Amino acid sequence: MELGVGLPTSGELATPENIARVAQEAERLGYAALWTYERLLRPMEEFSIFGGPPQRVPEIYQSVYEPLETLSYVAALTERIKLGTSIVDALFHVPVVLARRFATLDRLSGGRVIAGLGQGWMPHEFETANVPMSRIGAGMDEVVAAMRACWGPDPVEYEGRYYRIAPSEVNPKPVQNHVPILLGSTTPKGVRRAARIADGVNPIAFSEESLLGLVKEYHDAVTELGRDPATAPVYVRANVPITSEPLGADRPYLGGSPRQIADDLSMLDGVGVHHVLFSNMAPTGIDGEIRLLAELREAVG
Asked: What is the pLDDT of residue 7?
């Protein structure tokens, strides 16, 4: 199983110097990929998030470095490690522009891109992007199809309900013959869409039970479509505290000390999880972050 690292693109460690150091140390330690994510803004008002009581969006979203620009920066500082987004909110972008940005990064990095895409969830961001939330679903299908058309041979042409590309030359093309697209999904409906339109799925690990259920839903959907689950990877995102000392019985799944996390990961062997990326929710300074990444890599082996 591969391990990935969320770059410090938000929160107290988010500086160019720390981003560069984590990227280079992660590559040196043998991590498989570096990951960024997208957030357009942090609304001032309180509102209900996923049905909960009204609240502000978490403070960590106050400032978030742009994902593809950040990966272009670290592409010049690294040589082998993959560069992924988990995720970019695809509906907020013009497909041809987003496709060209990913293709440019793939060129600059020598073919190291993993394109993790999502639909977005915050009403304020849809409003800011001038995109109706009703576009969730069918609009995502079209974004993925239009992006893949842009990465294919010229002339590129696409005709859909929401997007149109007149017969055109669209360049640069990616280095990779097939840029892998992951779909950020946390529901059975979402993983079925990932099985249908994407190369892999990128769920969040809320609990062992929910994760294993989503992996099974995804593999079942892939199989029903005539695909081999072995060729449809699962990239799990773990937004968890990584701590020096073990946490108690109420610790979050895949969180805690490096040894506790390694024990959790060992239980995922053989269930079809290809990659787990860690975004440390309890950083203890950049030196502590690097030390914990080294300890986690050693614990996992």
From this structure: 98
